[in-house]
Amino acid sequence: MEAIISLLVGVLTTCGVYLLLRAQTFSVVLGLTLLSYAVNLFLFASGRLVIGRPPVIGLGPSGYTDPLPQALVLTAIVIGFAMTAFVILLAIKARAELGTDQVDGEANHE
Question: pLDDT, tens digit, for every residue of 79-95?
Fold first, then answer.
């Protein structure tokens, strides 16, 4: 399962960086979102992927899942939503004032 998660983190990171390097604001927002998903998956996988174990230590000898990465991911999701909303508002404002969705504010270079 760790191999699939690491492959997914790599694909999300690659797509996010590719979209960040494009010069249009919607692509940049989408790239930032994909990068945040990749970081969240990485943090979640860092707590060891265990299925069927409780997140707290019980009285019995059975193992447990580390709850700290899950709490970090939940916090990162909330912060990611707030940052995405802020960046979208900035993009809408820039589009309204500049009349273009290019990151540098200039018209298409084609």
Answer: 989 999 999 999 899 88
